Amino acid sequence: MPLRAKVATSVSKTAAALSRAAGRGDGSVIGGWLGLKIDPDLLAHLASGRAVALISGTNGKTTTTRLAAAAVSHIGRVATNSFGANMPTGHTSALAKAGTTPFAVLEVDEHYLARVIDATNPRVVALLNLSRDQLDRAKEVAMMAQLWRDALAGHPEVRVVANADDPMVVWAAEGSGQQVTWFSAGQRWHDDSFVCPQSGHPIERGNGDWWCTGCPLRRPRPHWRVEDEGVVDSRGDWHLVKLQLPGQVNLGNAATALAVAAEFGVRPIEALPHLATVASVAGRYAQVDRDGRNVRLLLAKNPASWLEAFDMAEQAPTLLSVNARDPDGLDTSWLYDVNFAPLRDRPVLITGDRALDLAVRLEVNGVPFRHVRTFDEAIQAVPPGRLEVIANYTAFQDIRAELDRVN
Ligand SMILES: [Zn+2]
Description:
Blueprint: H1 3-21, H2 28-38, H3 42-47, E1 51-56, H4 61-72, E2 78-80, H5 88-98, E3 103-108, H6 113-120, E4 124-127, H7 141-153, E5 159-163, H8 167-174, E6 180-184, E7 203-206, E8 209-212, E9 224-227, E10 230-232, E11 238-240, H9 247-263, H10 268-275, E12 287-290, E13 293-299, H11 303-312, E14 318-321, E15 348-351, H12 355-365, E16 370-371, H13 375-381, E17 385-391, H14 393-406
Bound molecules: zinc ion.
């Protein structure tokens, strides 16, 4: 590495360590930021010599990155941004901290994918999905798809692993001219892809298939897919997948991780035991026992991920918490994009800064609920046994902090 990059790496690591010591988070943002100030090419220097996989999409990227990193670790040490710092500052810090490793698996914020592809010259880019996220600042879904398409077009050497079930992703990946490995993880959110990004015609769906009614864009045949409790690989072999992470959506994330690992030469039979070791991801899915209640934390940050959380949750008392602080986005009108009806069959409690917004939504949706002011009140309001907690970003952090305080 050039001297400037060495100095920048050292400063970056020191700053991150200082930030951690001061109790100000894991320090990956400040460390990476300083490093990039000293050497704007630091990320490129740190990435060179590593085989890199980048994983991007609106939903599931933190978990898929965690699973893919676990799978690739079968063949060597893997640098990864496991705390979800998914912008170039976070990548820089993660690679600086990891030291020399043969592999890196990085979660990338969808807005930064082009920049990070340019900097890291990845072997594999995995594209998971595109849906609406924070309404008051997110780019239109179709604009993101265009950005991805352009980002890949300049890199014919990259192997693309992409979701066959998402028309926006397929259009972005197909335009690139690369060889694409398609996966089907089972996508239930369709409201952001009614219209073909190529021709503007309606997209029709049926029998797990989709096609544009006005141009040749249609669902490619997936090489990897979820089937029953397992995954069918690109050779047609079925593998039972045992995970500690709940729900059909994580089986889909596992299928994606296996497809990514295969690009590094890791076979499913080698990867699967590593996937089974992942118990929680940055606090998500974590289970905490409190006063005889087994509390499980599920993060839901946008309409698509709320549907996934309902799928993961057991039919047990459920606490919903919604905030609308800066990291959550200030606009809560997305609540009306989520159908809460699946919760009608269980006791529902609500809390959070925007519990009132949630209350109105549930009322309209015909879901009975009870409001609680604190997490403790929720615990006392349910019988011993499982309590599922579904919360959006800062609400999730609040509840985690409260659980950490007592445990
Ligand atoms: Zn079309």
